Amino acid sequence: MPIWLFIVVSVIKSIILLFILLTAVAYSVWLERKVVGHMQNRWGPTRVGPFGLLQPAADGLKFLFKEDLTPPHVYKPLYIAAPMIAVVFALTSISVIPFGNSVTIGGYSIPFQVTDVNTGLLLILGVTSIGVYGVALAGWSSNNKYSLLGGLRASAQMVSYEISLGLSLVGVLIMAGSFSLRQIVDAQAGHFWGFIPRWNIFHGQIIGFFCYLIAAYAETNRVPFDLPEAETELVAGYHTEYSAMKFAMFFMAEYANMITVACLATLLFLGGWRGPVFGPPILQAILPVFWFFVKVFCFMFVYIWVRGTLPRFRYDQLMAFGWKFLLPLAILNLIGTAVAVAW
Q1: Domain coordinates of the chain in residue numbers?
Q2: Is 301 exposed, middle or buried (CB count within 10 Å of its CB: 0-12, 13-18, 19+)?
Q3: Residue 153's CB: how many other CB atoms inside 10 A?
Q4: Strands in 196-331 per DSSP E
Q5: Under a CB-based contact definition with an 8 Å cutoff, are residues 142 and 71 in contact?
Q6: Which of 86, 149, 191, 321 could lock 253 by a disulfide, CB 3.0 to 4.6 Å apart?
Q7: To 5 degrees, how large is the angle CA 257–CA 260–CA 263?
């Protein structure tokens, strides 16, 4: 493929993927409000559009036109930069995620992925780790004791659970022998006994999946690990002093990170885009993408289900659970996988 065509195709894929991701972020909020509403015997959004489907657009317009207040006591450069850091790195990490095989157009094979790098998993972990700075700097630059405590909580929580999250993925890397997300999915091809998929969750990584799931909840500050923004004691946590679009950007980052975590879980443990493929060539190209998004949707539904079910931890319980239970469990899973593969 000529370099100019490669650049054009990459730009088009980036625009399409960014549009899909931002739309998914908006409707993840709608889905959460609907699902939790029905769990609590409420309706959720119903007023704007059929079934409240235009509520995300109404919320976006509201945030755009609200007065953007900047308190006089903040450290302005970092106060403004913090939500930008959070949302930019949350959106960047989606660029290396493959969500299908490839399609042939005009004799050129175009993968369903913005860019394919050999160290895709490392890149995602690194980029999402930098996103911690957005939350921590927001708390510090606000010059508010509640915001500062929220930022400190977020930093300690994310660093603690990031260790368990990283270790939970090493078992998958040992089995696949690659950091490439596409090769990790390829390593999950085939079936056991002709009908059980060789997904890693069925192939000795059920404990690794459990550790990843719990650590992912903590990394994205979701219930029952949403202590950085615990309104019962911290007003609103690290984003107390934010308003209008800067306030909305933190929530965009949170839901974008949720989608990234769901995509990563699908690729590493649930076989990626692998599923039944049949019919004409065009259907065979679309079905893998369909299976990928179905798995991501199911993971997002579990995210919301947990929010509507479990109570919040105390902060000492949260840290003790991460260091005394989840970390040893992730290490045991790593040792067990290494011994099994060596055997």
Answers
A1: 72-102+115-342
A2: middle
A3: 25
A4: 196-197
A5: yes
A6: 86
A7: 155
Reported confidence tier of residue 77, pLDDT bands at 50, 70, 90: very high
Long-range contacts of 323-326 (CB under 8 A, 24+ apart): 323/160, 326/161, 326/164, 326/211, 326/214, 326/215
Can you name the residues that pair with 105 across neighbouring β-strands?
108
pTM of the complete model: 0.92
Task: Note the residue count of the chain.
Answer: 343
Amino acid at 242: Y
- Token couple for 336: 């067990």
pLDDT at 249: 92
* Sequence-separated (6 or more) residues with CB below 8 Å from residue 246: 68, 80, 83
Place of tokens 């404990």: 207
Tokens, residue 309: 């079910």
Distance of alpha carbon 10 from the chain centroid: 22
Q: What is the pLDDT of residues 132-175, one digit of tens each?
A: 888 889 999 999 888 888 888 888 888 889 999 999 999 999 99
Average pLDDT over residues 300-323: 90
Q: How many Å apart are CA 326 and CA 205, to the nearest integer?
A: 15
Question: Is the CB of residue 91 less than 8 Å from the CB of residue 81?
Answer: no
